[in-house]
Specification:
Blueprint: E1 5-8, E2 14-17, E3 37-40, H1 55-59
Antiparallel strand pairs: 1-2, 2-3
Length: about 80
């Protein structure tokens, strides 16, 4: 399986590239028509959720992203 890369765009979507499957809340896979790259909406205003349609530009979505370290996972009980 190829690596999957997810890039958090400043003021824009999550960009996925590589080998991946996207499923709905019931576990049904979206037909991605062979795509190995696409963008997921992060602003919440896309008419094509969960996919980005560029609406973030029109609604003025503004969220800068910078990588940081997450805290260690909580122990499983």
């Amino acid at each position: 399986m190829a690596d999957t890369e997810i890039t958090v765009s400043n003021n824009g979507p999550l960009r996925l590239k590589g080998s991946f499957t996207i499923k709905d809340s019931e576990g049904n896979a979206y037909d991605l028509a062979g795509r190995d790259a696409l963008a997921l909406c992060r602003c919440g205003s896309s008419e094509n959720k969960p996919f980005c349609d560029g609406t973030h530009n029109r609604v003025g979505f503004n969220h800068q992203s910078k990588a940081f370290a997450l805290p260690p996972p909580k122990p499983k009980v």
